[in-house]
Amino acid sequence: MVVQSRMLRLLHLPRADSDSVHAALVARMQDLPPELMRSITWDQGTEMARHLATADKLGAPVYFCDSRSPWQRGSNENINGLLRDYFPKGVTLRGHSSQHLLAVENELNNPPAMFSKTVVPRTYSPLC
After folding, report:
1. Whole-prediction pTM value?
2. Which residue, of 27, 64, 83, 95, has the fewest CB within 10 Å?
3. Which residue has the higher pLDDT, 3 or 92?
4. Taking the CA of residue 105 as centre, how many other CA atoms within 13 Å lie in the half-sphere pointing to its CB?
């Protein structure tokens, strides 16, 4: 997730080894402008063993959260909660296609418009 804009990017990972994670991160994130890719925050895990190569390739440092410290990644934890609506806890994403992940990503990045209690949607529609 890009914290500044709250933009989410989901990765399709056939395997969770460091080479697969590095390749997927670089492929999925390299098109972001540098001002949006200021850093990458990750849990501690062996899948990020190539974090120096990833940081070098993307031009952004990788920060690791302390073990058992979810408050250090509050925005990520919030997104994880939203993702549970699509992918229940304990269910692996390996069975989901890249297209399905992109559809979920698009839905979360483009939520329905919210209106105040005093303004109704038809106020903004040229058809009404």
Report:
1. 0.70
2. 95
3. 92
4. 16
